[in-house]
Amino acid sequence: MTSLRSPKNSALAVGIVALLDPLPIGFFAAAWIFDIIYIYSTEIAWTQAASWLIVFGLFIAIIPRIINLIQVWVGTGYPQGSPVKVHFWASALAIVLSIFNAFIHSRDAFAVVPAGVTLSTVVVLLLLFANLQLALRERLA
After folding, report:
1. What is residue 8's DSSP assignment?
2. Which residues lie below 8 Å from residue 86, measured CB to CB, with a gap of 6+?
3. In angstroms, how far is CA 66 from the centroid of its own chain?
4. How far is the C-alpha of 90 from the C-alpha of 125, rounded, in Å?
């Protein structure tokens, strides 16, 4: 997240975002893999582990988004369509979808399969898109 490291932003906030921002994609990707394993094994422990991974990912994902909200949308003038704003919206959408995914994963066993796996896939793809576009567009700028 090089774009949030401007001198205008607080060093503590930049450090917290840099520390916590990459973690949720790991939790959500692991949950997605566990969902796929559950489809083929039908062992309920995989979907229960995926549920916990989604919850942990959500707790960790919300803190950097709140800091990012303040840094990007209050005070400093990032232009419309800037990579930082696209990253914010894609990550925020991923968080909202993960909240719905957590509710779906609270269902009983195989009821998770079609919707939960689909939402896990969309969340991982959204976070990959957000991070890749931020890295590539900042590299070109």
Report:
1. T
2. 130, 133, 134
3. 13
4. 10
